[in-house]
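Protein entry
_____________
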Amino acid sequence: MKQQAEAEALLDQLLKQNPAAAGTQNLAGQFRLVLGDLPAAEKHFGEALRADAASGPARFGLANIALRQNKPDEALAQYEQVISANPGLSAAYKGVASALELKGQADGVPARLESFAAPHAKKAAPLAVLAEYALRNSRPGEALEWARQAREREPELAYAREIFVQSVLAQAGRQSTSGEL
């Protein structure tokens, strides 16, 4: 608790020194978001966007707030802007999946994530998230195919490699329980 109070005091000093700095406002937004103070977090992320309209961290923070407030359409709009600016950010694709699930459109998640894969043909993130989503929904065969494609796009991306290994393990587990090995 003492460290949190110290961090808060330092953050207040930073905000007083340069209240228009997008980075400082984003940090304040993250701090408030972690503490669960959504109105304050939203205010700081809004200030960050006023300072820098292209601030990805601010848009990502606002998207996360929208999810917590059960506003999936707002979350989707923010996540899509984040993806447009940073197509390699896996967390944004996961946010899209969460927002669609919140809307009751879980069946549309694969198609929506696939729609991001084509325009970002060199990025593995949308495919790796598709693989993770398929794993979560007990579809290891699909997961393995998406993970394989993700690895082909970015062989050095740790997330793509991890999802590939998890997919192989899930597929092997399914085959061993069904007697296919």
In short: The mean pLDDT is 92. The longest helix spans residues 158-178. Residues 90 and 125 are 5 Å apart (CA to CA). The radius of gyration is 19 Å.
